[in-house]
Specification:
Three copies of one chain form a homotrimer. By secondary structure, chain A is of the alpha/beta class. Chain A contains 16 helices and eleven strands.
């Protein structure tokens, strides 16, 4: 029996009735079995692809991508995922559109979704805005479908909002699962989700939030470390706490990177801006106060510079379990001596983990494809088995 | 019998021998039966899609889009239409090309058309230029095909020129046909194609021109209303007059929005620049006279501002048939109190018509697909029947 | 027997074991039989397409294009070639990416290649950089494949580097082969690869280098003509010399355009910057010396202007064999009196060769498709025969 069929048999046992035709906003909206389903389908699609079996389930149809912030990895991952399933990718470039003319989100949403099966949106720049935009957009297309404007109901893949970055964090986790040989081996493992110094400003909170909101569901000891004043959204901390209690793991916080790294099995050192600062920025932005925004930026850069010792150095790595914790990053990283003078991580550390880091990233297209697959295919387990049995070649000859 | 097959049977009776391998510039180039064919194929393709039947008639091939002005709706409609039929969409972004180097249109046309089945062009900015560009482009690809440079003869879908906007106006009309329950019910219906105030400048004439040039063919009473000095192209008025005489309808002009709206079944209030002003701008542009262009813009904005009472207000709507004429717009509209302080339409009016407005827009991808289908498929009626009979799924599983 | 099958039978006899899974950097990396294979497959794919036979060998998959310089022809040729074989084209637009943040080429290469079958790169601006970038990129994806990051090994099509422009020069040559009725007729033909005056600055060397590096392999008399100080890379001249010796042709240099054109069967007059100047620019660029770059540009433009007599005039054409040598250009050309006041070629000369020039360009999509085909398909001769026998329609109905 092929790996894909084995995975399909596992999928059959999961309760995933609420995934069909549903949006994917945040991992904590989903049950444990639903997350399991995403990982399972991702692995199955990868196995089929590795065996040159076509996984095109669409004979035409569009995936619409909207990137309100620059992107390479996620853009290409979304395009790859669409292509893998037979969708063409159509990007909404707001600079080439007439959207600036005061068009409502509701109108744009309908206008770009006429033959769209899936919508991928990245909107991570402003706290309190990113998720709201996605929700408004998807409410509009749902109404559009109900009103007979759209022939099919497009579903969302959140490609990063101000709250969560589910495709990233689930790719991170699938990498961790494979690294430790199975989800059952994660119990009791310690992960340090730690702030790290970066010379740049205003990095989104969605990765640390997504990580503590997701990894706490697997019985792990999740430690969130950051200097004072770099708090994440309290709502997400609450979720992490509840998750940890339910899964038999723990969620704790510290202001010491060294403590967090101590005996950690996994480290995820990464810069972000504080929740409070990002809220302030959102308000200044709404008020059109550019001078205020500039002043805030200077203040935050100065504040960052006080914490240059928050770096994933060789010394810091030595504190981890056997000195060889699994190093995670969503990329691109600020690498000391390579991409900047002082950054998140020592070049020698980063370099040692290049292959696992790229592998971590390589799960993202499959995670996205799995989210689409589960939202679009009525009986995903049967579909995987039929794809496998049919054995249509992706590359002929 | 499915709706698609019924429509195919109707299509069989139409004389459409001149559509195969032909370009679509202006609706008035086409016979009544040819327009009927476009509506019929659009409805059939939509029916097939709604029943999850694949309408891919191409196994590879390109649709080339050239937008010389910003676009969201039309861009996505063209991409959707190409995708529906199995073509990949390739956009010519003049900023990324070497075209600025003085390359001729003839050369560009051949260079981007090597495997193109269809070319969609939007060039609506300069009176006397848009259509000319499209014609020069298509003459070049026809020669290219004749000379053995291109393996197939690409055909044009005019995505808006300075004269007509056929994909928009035919989508508008198909919406009207469905709203009134059939093309036979349009006879005697009154439509007010009216100028309306907008704080922006230089909107194309192609929509009002396209509307009076098309709607006059169906026995309707078409009233063109605008303040003095906002005339459209006289040639198109002549066409409208002849159409009205032939179809048993009427074409009249007024300088009163209120008169036009009186007892109207349909209203289409929309801003445009006057033909004379646009001709002046084209000359200034050709002469590279930026100061002249700026001065003209100021003068036209001031002139516009004298006509702020030309707005589709609640009061104005009350004059229409039962106070509830069908409100049309090509979108995006300038909405008073929403996208601008004073604009084309009251927010409350616009909001009441949101669903029909979006539905109106939703016909555009199918109109474009039908134009492509009729230009590419030798026996479109038989093809629709075979697609229906074959029943290949668009979305598997 | 169809032309495609005849060509496939010829292909069967060629030794091309080293093309499968291999990159295409420079024509001189390839054996004569391998070049023959590219021409053969290009002609076969064109024959199949002309007979409406689908040549899709991929059921999904991506072609990634990276243009580090503007492009129309090559961009559309690559997109066409991908489409012809069933790949979707995904462009890496560095402006929309996060690459500026100091990301390494190795990281970018892996991040954009997750489901890529082929990578097309144009990087021709800086001597000593373009090829290096391509090599670094492809080394990274090969490692990525080996390390299990990528499920398939993407292969390169060099869409122009600082050294060679193989897709252009092979399209040029295939045009020449067809013009003279077969590769066997090229023996003893004289081609003048000549510098010509252009009012613009810094045109790449890759075309003249590619031409002398390729055309010398077919027993032709290749003359490289340029004013003093406009030398090409000495390494490529060495290759041309060795090729000529091996093929029984000749490679010579002259500082007289008239001598080069005398009795020439083919002329290729085109501007380029000198190797020495381009090396200087690369150094200034690396040092971030903008003032130096500007000064260099002024100096080079002044130097160019001393050679305005290097133009493909009617007078110059009269010197060629029967006054009617085949005129080649990679396009766009600087045409005297059309795209510039004084340029590479008289308008009347250029105009007389329009159809052959466009035909020359029309081979590029097929050359690219052939390169992809030979790198991806294990038994290309059998594949062509099966495609022909199967006869799947590209356009149905």
């Amino acid at each position: 029996m092929s790996k894909a069929v084995e995975l399909a048999k596992h999928l059959q046992k999961l309760h995933i009735n609420n995934m069909y035709n549903e949006d994917f906003y945040w991992t904590w909206d989903k049950t444990g079995e639903e997350l399991d389903a995403v990982f399972t389908v991702a692995d199955a699609l990868r196995d089929l692809r590795e065996r040159n079996i076509s996984t095109r389930v669409f004979d035409s149809g569009l995936g619409i991508s909207i990137f309100r912030d620059n992107s390479t990895r996620t853009r290409f991952s979304f395009a790859s995922a669409c292509n893998l399933l037979g969708l063409a990718c159509q990007d909404l470039d707001e600079k080439k559109s007439q959207i600036a003319h005061g068009e409502t989100v509701r109108e744009t949403a309908n206008m770009v979704s006429f033959m769209a099966d899936v919508i991928g949106i990245r909107d991570d720049m402003y706290i309190g805005e990113g998720h709201k935009y996605q929700k408004t957009f998807m409410d509009a297309v749902q109404e559009g479908y109900r009103d007979g404007i759209l022939e099919q109901q497009p579903t969302l893949v959140n490609l990063q909002c101000d709250v969560d970055h589910p495709t990233q964090c689930m790719a991170d986790l699938l990498h961790v699962i494979h690294h430790f040989g199975g989800v059952e081996n994660l119990k009791g493992k310690k992960i340090a989700m730690s702030w790290a110094y970066s010379p740049s400003y205003g990095k989104p909170l969605s990765v640390p939030q997504g990580v503590v909101g997701l990894f706490t569901r697997f019985g792990m000891d999740v430690v969130l470390a950051h200097p004072e004043g770099y708090d994440i959204m309290p709502d997400v901390e609450d979720i992490a706490r509840k998750n940890a209690a339910a899964s038999g793991g723990s969620f704790s916080k510290t202001h010491s990177m060294a403590d967090a790294f101590q005996d950690a099995d996994i480290v995820y050192p990464k810069s972000w801006a504080s929740f409070a600062a990002m809220e302030e920025r959102t308000k200044l932005y709404a008020a059109g106060d550019q001078a205020g925004i500039d002043a805030l930026e200077q203040r935050l850069l100065a504040q960052n510079a006080e914490h240059k010792d928050w770096a994933c150095t060789e010394e810091m790595m030595k504190r981890t379990k056997d000195g060889s914790a699994l190093y995670l990053h969503c990329l691109p990283a600020d690498i000391t001596g390579l991409s900047c003078a002082e950054g998140e991580v020592d070049n020698s550390v980063f370099d040692r983990y290049l292959v696992p880091l790229y592998k971590e990233a390589s799960y993202k297209p499959y995670i996205i494809a799995a989210m689409i697959f589960l939202a679009k295919v009525r009986d995903p387990a049967r579909a995987l088995m039929e794809l496998d049995a049919r054995g249509g070649q992706r590359k002929h000859f």
